[in-house]
Write a structure and sequence with these properties.
Radius of gyration: 19 Å
CATH class: Alpha Beta
Number of domains: 1
Oligomer: single chain
Helix content: 40-55%
CATH superfamily: NAD(P)-binding Rossmann-like Domain
Largest sheet: 7 strands, parallel
Bound molecules: NADP nicotinamide-adenine-dinucleotide phosphate
Strand content: 5-15%
CATH architecture: 3-Layer(aba) Sandwich
Distance between the termini: 58 Å
Order of helices and strands: HEHEHEHEHEHEHHHE
Number of helices: 9
CATH topology: Rossmann fold
């Protein structure tokens, strides 16, 4: 039994260690890979992880200077090229991460593409591009990050889905199907990887004021149609999605597993 004195000591040491963590950042000492981390939502999540003390590898097909992040965080940020559609390319990414930092604690499978088109018009190539990137890409990343996370004693995987995973819009069949499958893949991964100490969750953003939302934002007719669905009256900011990713990656998210967290400010669908 804990005496009241030692209880007080435990409580104050817990408060102190929380305080230390807050000072060093909630992800201090962790190494994160963010696919699609060179722009849009991925870049915002990479920035938030760096702010919380993690080292981050931003991975995408094209190199990006990331001058602001490098100026603020120096050696803790690096860029590695990867095509998540290729298993070999993803294996090389994990090898590069292990060589550079010696561990991987957090993976965000964020790389994604959208190709709109009604089913009868949609090309095979566009269909495959969406499924290969959004679904098979997450499969490759999960499969090849697991040994790295096992070596680190566990880890966190966060897949980036979308509000469209559960909502229907003409012309979005490929995108919606890929994200719905990604959510099921998340739940299956959570069950299979729990014993290895790896938690797997999903974030499903609504409309976010960056990246893929830009073509909608710039089209007056589409923008007013979509803005009517946003209960909060505005699209989300990348930082609001990044905050959810930090929660899932940090100690605060230690008992959340196999969950799809909708971050959309409330979304109507008619
Ligand atoms: N913005 C939104 O409103 C919104 C809403 C819901 C969900 N989402 C989801 O959030 C994620 C990010 O969206 P975003 O709006 O930030 O998109 P974005 O600005 O178009 O960025 C996509 C990122 O993915 C990378 N990428 C694409 N294909 C890749 C591949 N095969 N291999 C590696 N990297 C690849 C891109 O870099 P390269 O082109 O150089 O490879 C880029 O860094 C996506 O999964 C998207 O579905 C976005």
């Amino acid at each position: 039994m804990v005496s009241s004195d030692s209880g007080t000591a435990l409580a104050s040491s817990a408060i102190q260690s929380n305080g230390d963590r807050a000072r060093r950042g909630r992800l201090a000492g962790n190494v994160a890979i963010v696919t699609g981390g060179t722009r849009g939502l991925g870049l915002a999540m990479a920035g938030a992880f760096l702010q919380e003390g993690a080292s981050v590898i931003c991975a995408a097909r094209r190199e990006a200077p990331l001058a602001e992040l490098r100026a603020a965080h120096g050696d803790r940020v690096s860029v590695t090229t990867v095509d998540v559609c290729s298993a070999d390319s993803v294996r090389s990414l994990m090898d590069a991460a292990m060589r550079r930092f010696g561990r991987v604690d957090i993976l965000v499978s964020n790389a994604g593409v959208s190709r709109n088109g009604k089913i009868v018009d949609l090309g095979e190539r566009e269909w495959r591009e969406v499924l290969d990137t959004n679904l098979t890409g997450a499969f490759h990343c999960t499969k090849y990050v697991v040994p790295c996370m096992e070596a680190a004693g566990g880890g966190r995987i966060i897949n980036i889905s979308a509000g469209m995973s559960t909502r229907v819009a003409p012309g979005a069949a490929a995108y919606s199907a890929s994200k719905a499958a990604l959510e099921m893949f998340t739940r299956a991964s959570a069950v299979e990887l729990a014993k290895k100490g790896i938690l797997v969750n999903c974030i499903a953003p609504g409309f976010v004021n960056t990246g893929m939302y830009e073509p909608l934002r710039d089209d007056e007719r589409l923008r007013s149609r979509y803005e009517r669905m946003m209960v909060s009256g505005r699209p989300g900011e990348p930082s609001e999605v990044a905050a959810a990713a930090v929660f899932l990656a940090s100690a605060e998210g230690s008992y959340v597993n196999g969950h799809v967290l909708e971050v959309n400010g409330g979304l109507l669908w008619s």
